[in-house]
Specification:
By secondary structure, this protein is of the alpha+beta class. It contains one helix and two strands. It binds zinc ion (ZN).
């Protein structure tokens, strides 16, 4: 399986703080004692990372699937 996460389409999102378009950023998250890199839309300017509840939950489910496949 590897760590093939679906690329998040960050187009159309803008940073609320500086108005810059968000670009996909690798974010290290810890879950169930393991850490993973997931791709979330983020702002290059101020480091803001958009963590949408639904999006984050989807990512967590992907991580869970990876753990189960091991
Ligand atoms: Zn910003």
């Amino acid at each position: 399986m590897g760590h093939a996460f679906a690329k998040f389409d960050a187009e159309g999102w803008n940073c609320k703080k500086c108005g810059r378009p968000l670009t996909p950023c690798s974010v290290n998250v810890e879950y169930m004692g393991s850490s993973f890199f997931v791709e979330l839309p983020g702002c290059q300017e101020c480091g803001f990372i958009l963590i949408d509840d639904e999006l984050a939950l989807g990512r967590m489910l992907e991580v869970e699937k990876l753990l189960e496949d091991k």
